[in-house]
Amino acid sequence: MPGSMTATAQCGGEAANYAAVGTQDIPGVDVAARQRMLKLFAQDEVRRRGCTGLRFHF
Fold this sequence. Notes:
Blueprint: E1 5-11, E2 14-20, H1 31-49, E3 52-57
Antiparallel strand pairs: 1-2, 1-3
């Protein structure tokens, strides 16, 4: 998928997958901003859930 933004981690022995997707552009929110939002969200989830091995795929 062009412009795909995903992240993966291991949580409790299972894969956790995160993605930033949308069908429309949001005025004022560029690709870098969407990447930042996904990164912050996934890092928070991993920290709160005790996950490991967070990797981003931009």
